[in-house]
Amino acid sequence: MIDKNKLDELAARLTDAVPDGLKKSGESVKQNFHKILQSGLSKMDLVSREEFDVQAKILARTREKLTALEKTVAELEKTSDS
Known about the structure:
Blueprint: H1 4-17, H2 27-43, H3 49-81
Helix pairs in contact: 1-2
């Protein structure tokens, strides 16, 4: 999931973008942004960068194996036709 510090930073940046008239509620606006962001992000099917990198490496190895198997099958088909 997203880092809590990054979520806080984003909520603060959104709060800073709010017009001055609405900033009077101050911390409550920031807390509301934080809750909305957290709720919205929790509904998404997100993975960490580390998990993504692991899955990308697994996929690359799987592609290599598939290519090797396709080559082997092609060679076997070639020899069986002879």
